[in-house]
Amino acid sequence: MLQSIRRSAILLLLFLLTSAPAMAGELNLSVAASMKEVINELTGNYEKTHPGITFVKNFGASGALAGQIENGAPADLFIAANSEWMDYLKGKNLVDRKSKKTFAYNTLVFAGSTGKKVTSMRDLVKLDKIAIGSPKSVPAGEYATTAIRNAGLEQQVQGKLVMAKDVRECLMYAELGEVDGSFVYRTDALQGKKAKLLFTVPQKLYPRVVYPMALTVKAATNREAQSFHAYLQGSEAKSVLKKYGFVLK
Amino acid sequence: MRLQIDVAKTQGHFTLQAAAAVEGQRTGIFGQSGCGKSTLVHLISGLLQPDRGEIAIDGLTLFSSEKKISLPPEQRRIAIVFQQAMLFPHLGVKANLLYGYKRCSKANRRIDPQAIIDVLQLEPLLNRGVNRLSGGEKQRVALGRSVLSNPRLLLMDEPLSALDDTLRFQIIPYLKSVSAEFGIPYLFISHSVLEMQLMTDRILVMKEGKIIEETSPDQLARNRMATSQTGYLNLLHLEEPSVENGLYSYPWGSGRLLVSDGQEGKTSLFELSSRDIILFKQHPKAISARNLLACTVTELFRSDGRLGVELSSCGKKLIAEIVRSAAEELDITEGSTIFAAIKASSFRRLD
Amino acid sequence: MLSLTAEDIQAILLSLKVALTATLLALPLGFATAWLMVFRSFRGKVLLEVLVNLPLTLPPVVIGYFLLLLLGKNGWAGRFLDAWGIHFIFTWKAAVIASATVGFPLLVRSVRLGMESIDRQLIETSRSLGARWFDTLITVVLPLSIRGILAGSSLMFARSLGEFGATIIVAGNIPGITQTIPLAIYDYASSPSSTMMALSLCLVAVVISVLVLFVHEVLSRNIEKQEAA
After folding, report:
1. Could you tell me the CATH number of the domain that includes residue C10?
2. pLDDT tens column, C19-41
3. Do B78 and C128 touch (CB under 8 A)?
């Protein structure tokens, strides 16, 4: 009796300790939340033409994703919504510098379902609640706070800002109507049903939204990862990006 | 006080069906555990609702399933003294005492708190917390509290069962004096025949949820004589003893009784078991028992397998207990002359 | 080592304010509910017990979601409240409601235990001495269940301090308005470069909890001493 208990315990322990071996043909992607639809479509297409390749996709705020990769989360490809988080991983030697390319660009907008008249940054002070991604980890939030600061409205919006964990949650708040509006990307606003694009944030108020992408150091020599990385720079990828409203240059 | 009750109540496996009409200031409810005494207390006080029936006190209907009347407990003015004093632990003695008094309408406040404090000797306890009181002190406070709520009836549910003997017989005088002085009728519930003898005039006997008879304390004691552990207890109030040869000599009727455990200068209550009285057909010339009484047999009664012999001596009555064969041997009949021997140590002092 | 920003201090003060308000708000209802469950019997009592204990077993996010359904602009109750200009979602009041809901079963549980230890005959005595049920409740039941009330309150207070799942859904993460300590830590924890700051705030949370438990212990001992006197 005791013998079999001991045996089962050892097997259980081994099972728990052994990390699941990476399946051949499985690629792990860590991607900024705003790229969700684009990447879903592209991986779908890729899987059709490359049987034997499956994707494990992880969408979220770029800062959170960077933290996960730093802590050992399996990732072969990383697409961030700003340079800061890509540089962060570069500094930790977790991404392959040579593979760093620019995937796309975007613009910051303000969208919402409020009845109030909102046409510019100054109108923000009239509002009760504004959702932004938490600037500590969400690039869209960082861009937004930069724009607010540069527009001189930092004091006036105190207490109005609802922190979201990524840009999609921002959009959801706007859709539900629980906030007057949210700072999201143009591409997100296009996805919205109830939330309308109210105004575009003047580019002079914030740095350009850029999506760097790179292979992780672990995947730098992975033939399949490299192949997908190349695909993302190809014409099919560009057309999908354009379809969803991303800027290519 | 006139109490009319005719109720039925089923709780789980137990069914109570009690019907009685009693009159008097000092009524007892007698029965063994589980006979339904406590249930009856709860029904009369309004803490439990009968399934059907009627309860009325002095013509006032407390409960009637037919007329759909049911007075809540706080309106019945029936105070309960429980076995455990149930003093409010978060209130001091004074606050406990006045709890019911404060909630009694001014019109109904007949009893003066100071009078109760005096009768029950509660003055030294007044500023104490209740948790450091002795059992007897607690019960006195509980009694005072109940009486101060000016109830129309006092329900005492085995109030002495949790006390030891000495204490019990110290409290009994308080119970009686309070009732007498303030005119409050009470219902005294107990399983002790002795307590019934000391506290009540009429008794309702309960068994298995029914009131099976209404009787007097003396009759109850006689009926229970054979089955009781102590036989029939003769109760004697004796006073002003003189001391003779280390024994206390008490006047008793036209004679005297010699008692070992007496108390000088005080009135004492003694119990004498019917089994401690030995009967002689003829006068024994010398005997170690210090009390030898010439008696006439006034009555013989049967109690299960025993015979109760009511004796008259010195103008007083005593009851002795013998087996039937002894009665035949000694040819004891009503009117016979007989000698009763009682040891001085057989008298047990109660207070 | 301990570095707290102005926002952190705001979060701490807000946490204390929300926890205190939630506890005070829940106390009367918690007391009444416990009293109902201990001293009254009625049809559907089992249902009440289940309902009261539900927040204990449901994931807090589910509770938050239900509260959102109830109190949101398009919610069942929210619609009417909106007409009267009363808004809960994304205000500190929502944080209070979230904490109160989540902590309620803990409060009721403790108060119940306190009440169940009261000898029934004490209550019967009170009634027979002329006190109506409400009088008995205030003059006998309440004082004798203080221990349970205190224990329940401190437990609920501590739980409120740590409430996250329901709060973030229904009150949102708004610095200065609804960002309590757990939400602030969550913010920090999402960002790999801010883990040290999260640590400072975590330390504060621990210290507060220890203080609450300490006060609770001291108070309970005092009451024990009082009762023995």
Report:
1. 1.10.3720.10
2. 999 999 999 999 999 999 998 88
3. yes
Name all chains with 3 or more CB-CB pairs below 8 Å to chain A.
Answer: C
Cβ of B88 under 8 Å from any chain C Cβ?
A: yes
The verdict on C215 touching B (C-beta cutoff 8 Å) is no
What residues does CATH 2.40.50.100 cover in chain B? 268-349
Is B138 near chain C, with CB under 8 Å? no
pTM beyond 0.90: the answer is no
Cβ contact B99–C126 (<8 Å): yes
Residue ranges of chain B assigned to CATH 3.40.50.300 = 2-220
Distance CA(B66)–CA(A38), nearest Å, equals 81
Query: Do the Cβ atoms of C124 and B47 come within 8 Å?
Result: yes
Chain B partners within 8 Å of C128 (Cβ): 45-47, 73-74, 76, 78-80, 149, 155
Mean pLDDT of A148-159: 93
A165 closest CB neighbour out of C74, C89, C190: C190
Residue of C nearest to B79 (CA): C128
**CATH code linked to domain B2-220:** 3.40.50.300
Q: Is the CB of C121 inside 8 Å of chain B's CB atoms?
A: yes
Q: What is the CATH number of domain B268-349?
A: 2.40.50.100
pLDDT of residue A15: 73
* Contact: chain B with chain C (3+ CB pairs below 8 Å): yes
- When pLDDT is cut at 50, 70 and 90, the band that residue B272 belongs to is very high
Q: Does B86 touch chain C (CB under 8 A)?
A: yes
Q: Residue C108 corresponds to which tokens in the numbers above?
A: 């009721």
pLDDT tens-digit series, residues C98-138: 999 999 999 999 999 999 999 999 999 999 999 999 999 99
Question: What digits encode the pLDDT tens for the residues B213-225?
Answer: 999 999 999 999 9
Structure tokens at C54: 């539900």
Tell me the three-class secondary structure of chain B, residue by residue.
CEEEEEEEEEECCEEEEEEEEEECCEEEEECCCCCCHHHHHHHHHCCCCCCEEEEEECCEEEEECCCCEECCHHHHCEEEECCCCCCCCCCEHHHHHHHHHHCCCHHHCCCCHHHHHHHCCCHHHCCCEHHHCCHHHHHHHHHHHHHHCCCCEEEEECCCCCCCHHHHHHHHHHHHHHHHHHCCCEEEEECCHHHHHHHCCEEEEEECCEEEEEECHHHHHHHCCCCCCCCCEEEEEECCCEEECCEEEEEECCEEEEECCCCCCCCEEEEEEHHHCEEECCCCCCCCCCEEEEEEEEEEEEECCEEEEEEEECCEEEEEEEEHHHHHHHCCCCCCEEEEEECHHHCEECC
